[in-house]
């Protein structure tokens, strides 16, 4: 199918905005597992502190990368409290375990091993044909094609979400959702954004769209859909809030979980352990990535307010001095719960500090601020976890036998690929 025409979609959207502007939307940025953890905590704080809003019944949701997990869950009627039990809570019954993101991409490794003999023969032939003018590095540069495009297998994400959305009352089909859901990925071949959930791409399963939107290059291989390959949607924009605003949304709540860490300010407050350059390459790369996407998001927010002057746009994000969020080990269950609690507390603080300016904006849309809860210093995240609705058809635990069968099947595939390469 042809990709969405950005200019054509924007033109149609402007026409819709002139005709009507109403409704409440939610835009969630990416940030890996840490981003999803923060967004669940922030949503719990907002759901607990605001009156007159149900986050499972908004008019439009936009998700990018890990924000797509949360947005799709909300659009399927899974509340923030239910998400906490699914994605955050520890114990044997936790549905979303950290290991789901760490399954090695054996299929990608096998493909590269199978291609290596042919690439080696071609490189050797190129060098021997003209060894004096063609250097070794130039001749053997073709071996770069044998480097895997991703370390981990993101198909596990698709499988998990397919089971989650197969429960009664949920759907894995954009067209069957009672509300609008948009998940943004980047077309690897064109470099442009693609909006799954739009008319041209509504046939793609929601779980597959999330897999594509969260395929961070280097960690996960590109995702093939309808002959094209897709990677993380954050490569183009951080929030893609305009997707919801083009639908005529009058109030858009935005959550951005990643901000650059201000080490100098944090050290003054006694909250930073060391300088970032002493933390090695991972910290340097992490800070660089955060600075780039946050700077781009700030530019985008200014653009949104200029292009959509009649829309209310409210952004929530962490403190730049928060060492806990920056130095977190996101694959620890105890850390996951603690970080979600931090997100809950920080969002409450932000809402309380801005209550006077936000109250009239929210009131226009029938939303009230529960000042009594914001003024309660003893209120914690567990106070917001009360949800009378049962969590239906939670994905069951994977048995030892099933795990052994999957491992044996994967090893067989790898063995066949190595044999073919030899």
Low-confidence spans: 1-11, 13-20, 393-411
Q: Treating each run of at least 4 consecutive H or I residues as one helix, how many helices?
A: 16
Backbone structural class = alpha/beta
- Integer average pLDDT: 79
**What's the β-strand tally?**
10
- Portion in helices: 40-55%
Largest sheet: 8 strands, mixed
Shape: globular
Q: What is the N-to-C succession of helices and strands?
A: HEHEEHHHHHEEHEEHEHHEHHHEHH
Termini, distance in Å? 39 Å
Protein architecture, described:
Helix 2 packs parallel to helix 3 (66-75), helix 2 runs antiparallel to helix 4 (80-88) and helix 7 (155-164) packs antiparallel against helix 8 (206-213). Helices cover 46% and strands 10% of the residues. The chain has 422 residues and is α/β, with parallel strands linked by helices. The chain has helices spanning 6-19, 32-49, 66-75, 80-88, 106-129, 136-139, 155-164, 206-213, 242-245, 263-268, 281-307, 323-326, 333-353, 355-363, 371-374, 400-421; strands at residues 24-28, 50-51, 60-64, 180-187, 193-196, 223-225, 228-232, 251-255, 312-316, 368-369. The radius of gyration is 23 Å and the shape is globular. It has 16 helices and ten strands. Mean pLDDT is 79; it is low at 1-11, 13-20 and 393-411. Strand 4 (180-187) and strand 5 form a beta hairpin. The strands form two sheets. Strands 1, 3, 4, 5, 6, 7, 8 and 9 form an eight-stranded mixed sheet that branches. A two-stranded antiparallel sheet has the order 2-10.
